[in-house]
């Protein structure tokens, strides 16, 4: 018999399941921690190495009365070495393709887990990439909530692009200006900056599948907050008729802002130079340092690394540059005496990004516009030099530079992964964008105001705090009214 409203109910239980990349797993763990802090029992399904990268977030959540458990399943056998499980530093297209196949192979352990535990689970929070999870969850009458991990702005742009397919009626010149229809702002991008279906039929088809599955889902969770992109929250609900809960910035909401040194590092381990960068920052004047990091998946060519090094030098600013594993051997790319003689510090590998962004010495962030990094900069009130490469990054650049006006672009024009060729961006242009961001006082003011709004959103009574409560109430009401019939959401 279905429980009734007045019955004492056990806590809600949510299953979190995301693709095996740091940029997907870190915000998922943060999000699980914030639901756990509100009394939800959270389970994360992931693989062994990835479990080690989110261990510090999970442990912290559990010491502060939350309940997050991690169910570890084997890394799918796709013929990759064990170190490749992190998904970063993959050295060839073949390795990259194999890694992407794990997204399909994880369906089997996910199905097995659901078969044994479906009776206890109130909702599955699934990566959008796992489009098939909508049917697996529906088979057990469990609502599937998508978490793609991007901004509402980028999500709306992609939706407009997939729906209208503007490429069909325009020149295939990458310099063609394309306007995305039906959005709250006028958004125009160059064809070369977009996911072009002629060049990328597989990616386009995958996104069609993802969006179709999301439309059939119970709703969507966003690592964002209403005050950041109110027109897009409204667009999502009123125009697209989709349910969305904006619960971020999750890196703030989970409370992990207090102790985040090893957040996301494999086995929680940081190199001495990585820890040393915080001491180096301590010695620098307020807002004098540009933080330079392009997330976990961006690799520049040796020529581009050299131009970037020269650009940092020419800018005349202090800089802290994080070079991800897999990048070109930097010793070959740098000018003599770099970086110390040039006011800089380099970290190779993993760095404590949230701590760096919140350090008083940091006054700007050169970023690839991955959504987590972008939102972490917004939360810290730091303006950005934007250098997008692919995925949602060009959309996020528009949001940062044109809608929020807290960034300046370096002029990236080609949507391409690290395995493809990019037009070289010269040192003078790089230096000029850095100078603009580091001196623009109005931009700093706007960035600081946004940071304050971000922090308020996750406080008790803030918009993100309320959206968490709203979703929990809906899930509890759904439980109390009895499960819908099999196959129904
Ligand atoms: N990150 C970090 N240290 C690093 C590199 C990345 O803590 O040295 C974190 C960063 O704070 C963010 C995530 O990894 O939470 C990267 O996600 P994002 O969406 O910005 O970029 P991606 O790596 O997915 O392209």
Automatic annotation (TrEMBL):
Q: Which residues cross the membrane?
A: none
Q: Which Gene Ontology terms cover its molecular function?
A: UDP-glycosyltransferase activity
Could you tell me the keywords of this UniProt record?
A: Glycosyltransferase, Transferase
InterPro entries this protein is in?
UDP_glucos_trans, UDP_glycos_trans_CS
First-level EC class: transferase
Q: Which Pfam families match?
A: UDPGT (PF00201)
Query: Which EC number(s) does UniProt give?
Result: 2.4.1.-
Gene3D superfamilies membership: Glycogen Phosphorylase B
Q: Which SUPFAM superfamilies match?
A: UDP-Glycosyltransferase/glycogen phosphorylase
PROSITE patterns, sorted: UDPGT
Q: Does the keyword Nucleotide-binding apply?
A: no
Report if keyword Glycosyltransferase is assigned: yes
Q: Which family does it belong to?
A: Belongs to the UDP-glycosyltransferase family.
Name of the protein described by the UniProt record: Glycosyltransferase
Organism field: Triticum aestivum
List the top taxonomic levels of the source.
Eukaryota, Viridiplantae, Streptophyta, Embryophyta, Tracheophyta
């Amino acid at each position: 018999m279905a429980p009734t409203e007045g019955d004492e109910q056990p806590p809600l239980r949510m299953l979190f399941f995301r693709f095996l990349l740091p940029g997907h797993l870190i915000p998922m763990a943060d999000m699980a921690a914030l639901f756990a802090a509100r009394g939800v029992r959270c389970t994360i399904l992931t693989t062994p190495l990835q479990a080690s990268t989110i261990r510090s977030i999970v442990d912290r959540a559990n010491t502060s009365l939350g309940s997050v458990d991690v169910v570890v399943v084997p890394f799918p056998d796709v013929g990759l070495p064990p170190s490749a499980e992190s998904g970063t530093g993959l050295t060839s297209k073949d390795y990259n393709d194999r890694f992407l196949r794990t997204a399909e192979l994880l369906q089997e352990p996910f199905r097995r887990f659901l078969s044994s535990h479906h009776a206890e689970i109130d909702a599955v929070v699934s990566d959008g990439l796992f489009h098939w999870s909508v049917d697996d969850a529906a088979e057990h009458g469990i609502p599937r909530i998508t978490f793609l991990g991007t901004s509402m702005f980028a999500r709306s742009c992609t939706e407009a692009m997939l729906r209208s397919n503007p490429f069909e009626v325009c020149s295939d010149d990458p310099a063609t200006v394309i306007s995305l229809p039906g959005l709250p702002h006028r958004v125009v991008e160059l064809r070369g900056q977009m996911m072009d279906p002629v060049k990328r039929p597989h990616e386009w088809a995958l996104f069609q599948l993802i969006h179709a599955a999301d439309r059939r889902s119970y709703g969507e969770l966003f690592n964002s907050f209403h005050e950041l992109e109110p027109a897009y929250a409204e667009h999502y609900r009123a125009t697209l008729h989709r349910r969305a809960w904006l619960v971020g910035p999750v890196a703030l909401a989970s409370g992990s802002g207090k102790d985040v040194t090893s957040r996301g590092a494999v086995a929680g381990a940081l190199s001495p130079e990585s820890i040393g960068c915080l001491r180096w920052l301590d010695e620098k004047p307020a807002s004098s340092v540009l933080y330079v990091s392009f997330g976990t998946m961006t690799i520049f060519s040796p020529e581009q690394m050299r131009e970037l090094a020269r650009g940092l030098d020419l800018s005349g600013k202090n800089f802290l540059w994080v070079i991800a594993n897999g990048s070109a051997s930097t010793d070959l790319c740098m000018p003599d005496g770099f970086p110390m003689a040039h006011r800089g510090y380099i970290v190779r590998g993993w760095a404590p990004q949230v701590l760096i962004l919140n350090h008083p010495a940091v006054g700007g962030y050169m970023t690839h516009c991955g959504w987590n990094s972008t939102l972490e900069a917004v939360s810290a009130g730091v303006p950005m030099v934007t250098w997008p490469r692919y995925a949602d990054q060009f959309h996020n650049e528009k949001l940062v530079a044109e809608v929020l006006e807290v960034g300046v672009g370096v002029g990236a024009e080609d949507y391409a992964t690290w395995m493809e060729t990019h037009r070289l961006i010269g040192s003078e242009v790089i230096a000029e964008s850095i100078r603009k961001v580091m001196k623009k006082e109005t931009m700093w003011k706007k960035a600081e105001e946004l940071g304050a709004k971000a922090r308020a959103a996750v406080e008790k009574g803030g918009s993100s705090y309320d959206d968490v409560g709203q979703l929990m109430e809906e899930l509890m009401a759904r439980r109390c009214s009895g499960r819908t019939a099999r196959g129904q959401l």
